[in-house]
Structures
1.
Amino acid sequence: GLSAKNYGRAVYECLRGGLDFTKDDENVNSQPFMRWRDRFLFCAEAIYKAQAETGKIKWHYLNATAGTCKEMIKRAVFARELAVPIVIHDYLTGGFTANTSLAHYCQDNQIITIFIPFSTSSSECRITPRGCGFFSTNWGLSPHHPRGGGLQCS
């Protein structure tokens, strides 16, 4: 795997090359060769550098998935400190309590949180400063659906 520095460089190249956003893989966590804090720092640097050079808004979705709810919140806090407003989280790994805790923290702190499963054919939950709702990548449910599948995070 790539080091955090080389990973950040790859993110920069993608953003500088014309992509509007990139994201961590669902399975990227914190391996010995690429610790999460270093990855967050290098990705934030890549975003700012690409924005400065292109004059366009660029995004990177940082993976906040961790082994405990406390650790996931810690990662979301660090993303906020870096002014990176989007984190992703594997909701199958996290479980309901961790998902709810992370969703509430992010909603209270205006961080966009995207909950993803290992299989992207399942539903996703998007929490934004305006509210939240479910949408599906394959089932056609609109992100603007008023009830979004029945679960609301307000």
Note: Residues 1-63 form one domain.
2.
Amino acid sequence: MERLFAALNPSILVRRGDIIFTFALIAVLVILILPMPTWLLDIALALSITLSIIILVTALFIEQPLEFNSFPMVLLVATIFRLSLNVASTRLILSNGHEGPAAAGHIIYAFGRFIMGGNFVIGLIIFSILLIINFMVITKGSGRIAEVSARFSLDALPGKQMAIDADLAAGALTDQQAKVRRKMVEDESNFYGAMDGAAKFVRGDAVAGLLITFINIIGGILIGVLQQGISLSDAAASYTFLTVGDGLVSQIPGLIVSVAAGMIVSKGSTQGSADKALFQQLSAHPTALGICSFLLFVFALIPGIPFFPFAIIATAVSGLAWFSYEKIQAQKDTATAPSKKADSATSTASQLPGKESISGIDMVRIELSYNLLPLLNRNDGVKITDQIKNIREQLGIELGFVLPAVRMQDNMDLEDNHYSIKIKEIEAGSGKVCPDKYLAMSPNGEDIPFPGEVTTEPAFGLPAKWIAGSQKDAAEHKGFTVVDPATVITTHMIELVKENISELITFADVQKLIDGLNESHRKLVNDMVPSQVSMGTIQRILQNLLDEKISIRDLPTILEAVSESGLGAKSITALTEFVRSRLGRQITHSFAQNNVLNVVMLSSEWESEFASSIVGDYNSARELAMAPSQLQKFIKKSNDLLNRSDVAIHHPVIVTSSNIRPFVQTVIDKLGPRTPVLSQNEIHHKVSIETLGEI
């Protein structure tokens, strides 16, 4: 006995569930072949009814359809089980039906006697009604819902995946959360697809029940009259009684499972279990319940209609309406109290503007033509969203500022293969890509010996050509740079972002950066703001640094420099130059190559020319008032020197005095790709200087 209880231990049954399930399916198949004693058939029929009730109750209590994502498989197993029992009961009815009403077991006999009341005609009518309800109403409706849900779920799959990838790229989701969300989307699509097929099982089960009943009645009468020698009336009564009883035993569990299937597929996006969702939504409108109660009282008062049934129900509905009204009022009172307390906190918090305050404006947005949307979810190569995530991390490390959320969406107005990159809703750049090809670029300007569409790389203006994927390896072997369309778009985006990054750091971003400092540095900010400088001034300084690609990761040093210069320097430009001098080691390191800084010097004549052309005091707003002819002359000389092959190959920086550095940088920027301009105060003393020329 102890061994028996040990074998029935639930933990052992759970561990050996695969073996038990396998033997159960084999037993179902055996039922189709071997005859079954009546006592075992009774147990199996009771098990079938139990299984159907468990399925229905489980469907009622789940809060989301995916909580019962094994339902299609359970439905298949339950259907096969019922059909195998139909075969077993048919064998008993046809072979032993002449022996009496208990020839096929006590459960079939009990169902026939209880529901039919001894009259097989009544049983046939009830069986037909149940069959019509199951076949024409429940299974047809749930099958249609499953079909539509499967199609809509499949159609919405790319959009849902794109939304997840966009949230991941924007930093709203972690990698793990994105994986979970993707798995849920995939499971949902698979579930509704499986339910679409499983609905056919339910429908087929109802049809099979009708055919089996017809065959049993005709076959039973023929066997009883021709083989057993009983009269036609006795054969019709006996075999019809058993067949209808068998049909009822199989159709009632089938009807229960059909209701469960309908409950699951019709649940859709409704949150919560069926009972909670039903009562919460019906009781959410007490006015509707009150009107219903009034109409029921009117029905009760109509002559000839029973008064008490309608009056009792009307009273119950009116009580439910009053209870719902009181509950809604209590919820409103509870919600109003804390909102009044939060008014002052809300008004204070609203003084700190952030990205959310720019209502409806995307800081960075990539718009794609419709045929480019597959680039967001392609399986070959790296997705755009994954690249943007890496770009945001790279910018955070490189410049100390995390790129705001990048929104990606389709734009039906764009021509095929075109994209647009917008910064603060204004187009900063656009381009064209071939989604099924690769872009081969020639850094040295040489011809690309492969067939394809000639173009220009949008980020750096390099000569390029769109080539077939089969030529990718050969092009790389010849030394050409080959990238996929997604990389073309993201590379273009990051260059545009770097050009406009000073516009992307907002007041809220500065506040967030400062809040991330340790306590000692936050104390420095509290002592400095607003007595020496305002938070807006700090924002402008950080914008100036980012505008020239100077990293703001070393925020403590920047704040210390602002604090030191705040009492003397008053203009934003002067404060920025002082901060740059304190960041000299960092700036020099970012432009030096192997501890060698290649420089182009500014001649003393041009130093004097710039210095004499500056209008305004060093600590106030200053402007460059150089004659246009002199500006053109300076631009030409600079362009000639910087484009010389022996100079350009070393990517030099221009060195000037700190007094004129920002103005020289402004003029140099007109030449095209930015050449950094450093002041003599920013060059670290431990770096070697290699002078390549003089302007």
Note: The radius of gyration is 40 Å.
